[in-house]
Amino acid sequence: MRDPVISCVVYAFDMLIVYIFYSRIAEKRFSTGKCVLLGLILFELGSAVNLVFQNNALVNAIVSIVTHLCFGVWCFKFRPFQAAGYAVCLTVINFALELGSVLAFSALTHTQPTDYNTNLALLIVECSTCKALLFLTCLILSYIAVPSARWSRHQLSLLLFPTLSSVCLAIFWYICLQDGIAPKIQYLLAVASLLFFGSTVLLFITYQHELEMDRERMQMKSENQRLLTEKSYYDILDQQNQQLMAYAHDAKNHLSAIQSLNTDPAIDRYIVALSDQLKSYTSNCHSGNMMLDVMINKYVLECERRNIRFDYYVRSCNLRDVEDIDLVAILGNLMDNALTAAEQSLKRFVSLETTTRNGYSVIVISNGCDAAPETRGGRLVTAKEDKKLHGYGLKSVYKTLKKYHGDYSWEYSEPEKTFVVTVMIGSSQ
Predict the structure, then answer these.
(1) Separation CA 55–CA 7 (nearest Å)
(2) Would the pTM count as exceeding 0.70?
(3) Cβ contact 365:352 at 8 Å
(4) Over 80: is that where the pLDDT of 100 sits?
């Protein structure tokens, strides 16, 4: 691989294969574009070092391990020792496949391994075949490395394509090594090999992307169904609260009438105690927005149950312009996250305030939080372990805010151990 162009292309393919392998067994730290860009820079630097040292085997192995290690630690959430293990494993597999393939085909065709240094067509076919075998091996390893994430039947059947591609490329390689093959035929087979391998990788990347999109669509559909169910729950709560408040109001009137007819001080004190107790049923939030009132009353009880202090002020803005289902999506998800964080913090408090600024309805939620939240690309991500099954509440918030031309921002105070999220809600028109 002393030819600079061939070396750059081969290292680029190495990066794509390693990226697919790492992304199947670990979570990315950045977006796909940033990971690929950083990976290309790292691997092309490795290619440059390889060219400078004229493809020295020892230097090449060291550079390969360092490149794989840096790529795993910087772009994926690997522990250093874990990334080092995968880096060594991939480097050994890559070298073993290249060396074993060259020696095997040289023995079969009675050619010399050094022929690839002088024949560009043979070099292209050899590299394509070896990378196809590496790609297939990495796919199988990704299945072994994460046994809990079993592949579906469709994913396992997709392994058939890279397997057949590797066989076809091996056949192209064998044909190129036969005596009497014209250079023109060798170059045509070389181009076909390169395109064949590239299409195999591209097909798998596209298929994997579609699987992720399908899973996300299903999760968002499930999230929307959850929001509808939660809204129905709030509607039932509102109906019950209205009935309870009507009963408490009538009961207070009856007690007041009894008190006016009573002359016994003991009975009078008893009636006063009952009246004070009934006031707790009529002293709920009255913002003018029934859905907002029901949600706040629900979180008042929830905070009492979890021993969390809850303060709220919503009189200056009752979010009446926000549809009920959207209010559940925005406020419900953010408040649930705030309660979860506050319950795990030393400062067990949550505060909610609504106001208006420059024509926007503003929601400010503060809560105790002992550790800075996890982010990706400036957006909050779930702190739960299985991020593939969680985190759709925040996506639902962001999606709903786009409907109102709004957005949210957040800040975390390390000294105060406080997390604050500010939501701006505009008009849905």
Answers:
(1) 10
(2) no
(3) yes
(4) yes
